[in-house]
Amino acid sequence: MKDLPDRRLLLVHAHPDDESINNGATMALYAAAGAQVTLVTCTLGEEGEVIPADLAHLAPDREDRLGPYRAGELAAAMKELGVTDHRFLGGQGRFRDSGMMGLEQNHREGAFWSADVDEAAAHLVEVVRSVRPQVLVTYDPDGGYGHPDHIQTHRVAMRAATLAAEPGFRPDLGAPHAIAKIYWNRVPRSVAEEGFARLRACEADFPGVAEIGDIPGVVDDSEITAEIDGTAYADRKAAAMRAHATQIAVDGPFFALSNELGQPLFTTEYYQLVAGESGAEPGEREHDLFAGVSS
Ligand SMILES: [Zn+2]
User: Fold this and answer.
1) What are the strands, taking DSSP E only, across 111-253?
2) Distance (Å) from CA 141 to ligand 1 centroid
3) Do the annotations mark residue 150 as ligand-binding?
4) Distance of alpha carbon 59 from its chain centroid, rounded?
5) Dist. CA 216 → ligand 1 center (Å)
6) N or C: which end of the chain has fewer CB within 10 A?
7) How many A from CA of 246 to the centre of ligand 1?
8) DSSP 3-state assignment of 151?
9) What pLDDT, on a 0 to 100 scale, did the predictor assign at position 31?
């Protein structure tokens, strides 16, 4: 295909802020290296809890204006990461944040959790066939930690990867495209444990400390197949996370969500290859998500 950069990375996330927490350093690194970095966010995060007291009026049980506000935070975060292509699945506001598992919001009209997977995936197929990424990054089947929108994001992203490659599926959405490599976001258990040990040993300004179970995607180290050292982009990642001020409080190498429990901010980001061929030697981790990919 003409006019496309050589390396093209697509990330699919549930809410504004997930991309910066999970992949901020990776996104900044590849954007700086001239790769096409495309972010698709499935909802506006309308049901999030608001941290700053002076913005509490935006909350869903008050003015219900958090969604558009978070779209603005996301745009600011993408500026910090140098990412220019960010989109909402089906357009801004098409799918609504479903809230935590078990809430009545799960089944509200327009809630992402209640969306038909194939119908939602068709919106993503259109993006895949136009951007033609070699690499897709999304969550594991549990969405990393069981949030309905994260689980649904996994289903939609994986389904879209399949459908985008099928010539018979919706030819009106563009020419078929097979994504060479698919990764799930991961955190190695040893890295999470070490991060919490650092956090407990220091005087970070949080009312409490989270637990390993609060961190999405923690798995045994043996399941990690790729690690991206984003140390050089640590400042960019922290700045992007700060841009999501309604959701995240950053303090040095740590941060907290609305539960005010501190957790480590990782600048090396970890992945598990679940489709496609590893570009690393057997038994080694990849250090480039595009390793082995021919454009
Ligand atoms: Zn989320």
Assistant:
1) 135-138, 181-188, 208-209, 218-219, 226-229, 249-251
2) 14
3) yes
4) 22
5) 10
6) N
7) 13
8) helix
9) 98
Q: Enter the CATH code of domain 8-188+216-231+268-275.
A: 3.40.50.10320
Distances (CA, A) of 250 to 46, 57, 122, 233: 21, 22, 36, 15
Nearest by Cα to 147 from 97, 100, 85:
100
If one counts every other C-beta atom within 10 angstroms of the C-beta of residue 286, the result is 21
Ligand 1 centroid to residue 89 C-alpha, Å? 14
Domain ranges of the chain: 8-188+216-231+268-275
What are the residue ranges in the chain where pLDDT is below 70? 1-2, 295
pLDDT in the model for residue 2: 56
pTM higher than 0.70? yes
CA of 112 relative to ligand 1 center, distance in Å: 12
Contacts of 65 (CB under 8 A, 6+ apart): 57, 58
**Residue 132 is encoded by which pair of tokens?**
């033609």
- Please give the single-letter amino acid code of residue 192: A
The alpha carbon of 199 and the centre of ligand 1 are apart by a number of angstroms equal to 23
